[in-house]
Design brief:
The chain is an all-alpha fold and about 90 residues long. It has two helices and no strands. The chain starts with 15 loop residues before the first helix and ends with a helix.
């Protein structure tokens, strides 16, 4: 009699949608940690230096990317659970 491997016998499989979700979550971090890309004053937008409007632009972009990642993971979980019930 063989015993299941550690972790309940299930392996985590990273599919393309989950990789995209991970990329959506990692992109804002990478953009904000790469300071050299936005550490300047020009070009200004409606009188606001680039440094400030670039960072503020990432607030809604990060929100949108987080929502996309959430939807992808939820769909993946629903599909996985539907596959297990069959």
């Amino acid at each position: 009699m063989t015993e299941p491997p550690e972790g309940g016998g299930r392996r985590a499989v990273v599919t393309a949608p989950l990789a995209v979700a991970g990329l959506c979550l990692a992109l804002p971090f990478a953009a904000m940690l790469w300071v050299a890309s936005y550490a300047r004053t020009g070009p200004a937008f409606i009188g606001i230096p680039f440094f400030y409007w670039y960072q503020m632009l990432w607030v809604p972009v990060s929100t949108l990317l987080t929502v996309v990642a959430y939807v992808i993971v939820r769909r993946h979980e629903r599909a996985r659970k539907a596959g297990e019930q069959r």
